[in-house]
Amino acid sequence: MIDMGTINTPLLTRTSPDREILTTQVEQANKEIARAYWWMKATDADTAQKYKVNDKIQNALALLQRIEYITMDIVKTIEEKS
């Protein structure tokens, strides 16, 4: 689970939808997703197989990759609408 206490980005509120804050938050999320992807990717395949979690790790990797693409699309859409 992500430790929300370690994230030092300003919060986006409904009353201040600042484009730069939103872009920064999404870009930071994208970086964290990429880090999570590579941590999962580095999992030892034999160990994962031993504990019968290899399929779950592969599913997590696929999901993280899809989320990364979505966050990149969000940033692109924000830039296009600005």
Any descriptors?
82 residues; mainly alpha
Structural account:
The chain contains three helices and no strands. The protein is elongated, with a radius of gyration of 16 Å. The chain has helices at residues 19-41, 45-50, 54-81. With 82 residues, it is mostly helical.
DSSP E strands, number: 0
Fraction in helix: 55-70%
Mean pLDDT: 84
Q: What's the oligomerization state?
A: single chain
- How far apart, in Å, are the first and last alpha carbons? 33 Å
Low-pLDDT residue intervals, each spanning 5 or more residues: 12-16
Topology readout:
Elements: H1 19-41, H2 45-50, H3 54-81
Care to give the gist of this entry?
This protein has 82 residues and is mainly α. It has helices spanning 19-41, 45-50, 54-81. Mean pLDDT is 84; it is low at 12-16.
